[in-house]
Amino acid sequence: MSSVPIEEGPDSSRTTQQPTNPGLLITPESLGVTFHSGNAKPQGQNYTKTLVMPRMKNEAIDWIDKEIPPEIAKAVYVVDDLNAPLHPPQNKGHEVMVYLTFIIENYDDLPDVAMFMHAHQISWHNNDLFDLDAAEMVRRLSPERVTREGYMSLRCQWSPGCPEWVHPGETHADDDKQEEVLMAKAWAEIFPADPIPGVIGAPCCAQFALSRDRIRAIPKVAYLYYRNWLTHTHLDDFVSGRVWEYLWHYVFTGNATFCPVEHVCYCDGYGVCFGGQEQYDSWWDIRNERDYINDQWLEWEANVRTWNSLIELGHNGEELEEMKNIKRPQRGLNEVYSNRTEKLEKAMDGLLKDALERGKDPRLRAEECGREWHEGDGY
Fold this sequence. Notes:
The chain has 14 helices and 7 strands.
């Protein structure tokens, strides 16, 4: 691999040439980096927390000040404004440049827990149990779990991404994962000392939390190298970001596939404890039925509109051949669908309410997650 300059720091213009194979100096394997579980603070002690986020200059983020508790520090980088108080050196790689820049600039003064998230409050890739609300995820996140685990994906649901997603040896392009056919080459450049895995899997979508100790388990020069790769790679903004979307978990866990059990993630990570896999699955069974009923309801409403429009045309004396091919919608189904949906949503709400109540008990949290717990322990 050709050599590129290594940055000495965010405000330094000095550069040095990398050796022929610079990754040999910085990958976890070659450095002998070992990730250890952390120890949560004694019950009642506070954690310092920072929310790290990229944003566009014209992107509305007023929800942060309204919804995020003031004790959580905000490090919001404006990616397209070099005059902003916080901005990355280059707008490339989507959130990757901002995440790496925060770590580099704050390596010696990190909070207990850093949360790395996107700027939109409501998005499909946030957790369904919180109505896709990023603010609720931030408020409920357990700093104790992040401290113990070191790295935590903020998205609990496996799909998309788990149990496997990217196959680095794949040569046929897939529009749903454009990074796949490029991953082997990118991996070899970023982690040249580490064998290219046959499969990579983790919950999407580049939103995660890190403990201070986990960040510092990796030397600062590694983050400088990663950012340098991002700066110099020929991959464009979108694809380079997608490549890194499925690398973060490897950087911070050493595992190419990292798919924590969903109900454990929700319980230990956010205090939503259904009681086990079977009970968690029951909630999703009801949710899936509710979604199916809603789809049927929408289809029925569309058929009613079509039927009524054809009736109106008939009153105007126009030919109604189309009606021969359309089944007349059954009357009163809207009330059937409405009642069924209401019952299902009531059942979902009841199970979720019970899960939230159960999650307030640190002993029950530990039991559901298979974690040892002693009287007086916190979460």
